[in-house]
Amino acid sequence: MSIIPHSNRARLLSAASCVGLAAACLTAAATQEPKVAPPPPAPAAPKQARPWKFRFATLDLNQSTGVGVVENATATSDEGASVTCDHFTWNDKTNLAHGEGHLSVSDTEVDATADKAEIDYHKSRKVMVLTGSVVVTLKPKDKADAAPAADGKAGAAPDKPKPDGESLDDSKRYAVTVTCPRLEYHYSKKRKYAVLTGPIVATQKVSDHTRTLKSPKAEWFGLEERALLAGPVEVEDTKGRKGSSPEGVTLYTTEGAERLVLHKGTWEMPVEDDEEQPADRKPAAKPADSPPAVAKPAEGRRP
Fold this sequence. Notes:
With 303 residues, the protein is mainly beta. It has a domain of 193 residues: Lipopolysaccharide (LPS) transport protein A like domain (lipopolysaccharide transport protein A fold), CATH 2.60.450. It contains two helices and 16 strands. The protein has a 16-stranded antiparallel β-sheet that branches. A hairpin with a 6-residue loop joins strand 14 and strand 15. 16% of the residues are buried. The N terminus is likely disordered.
């Protein structure tokens, strides 16, 4: 969700003069006044990184306490996450922040709304906790456009998802909406981890149906592209399919290696009609037998 800035300190190494040139310089220097080298420039004071950038209606910042208060604010962190709310406070001495009132959070992977947000922006932690009517939308991941060919023309078009989005790979191309009372999100570059405290309801609308998943708790391991749903887990969709498992379910979402792992459970599927020959279609009736043809009399002769 974010990038932790790393300072790059350049270290310069000086080289000694050539031995032959040094001897010549010593001879010439005997007739000249010694030159005093200028003092090295003082190192620049390190700039204090500001954890947030704001757009706001009003701002009250106390320099002595480090406490800032903004109203009708949009705060953007140095990791790229943005928080919009009616009231936002932060403390540079404790590295804690709080937002509430029409609260929304957004980054490249998720959009979320909640009643309140508590943020710990210590460099070593970076944790955001959303509470109260949490709604999270996981943005779909479309496959990138095909790379241009060597002649500069566009390559082949990417594969389209299956009509009903049944495979796990296709499922990632559709947004997922999750509701829960509490979401704890660790958003540093070195750790992408979330804990959703339930009851959790996840809904995904694909091309021709909608499916719903329920679980009391879920964990997401972003760097491993793995999710763990605590049991009991219930799944159903608008096509009449449904299943459940009393134990946890593990979902792996690495592209090309998507898989679902569960140990116990049940699954029900409705009987689907054959699309080529629907059950209610009657076979076509055979044409009635025509009467035998009567031979015509030869021309010029009487019967």
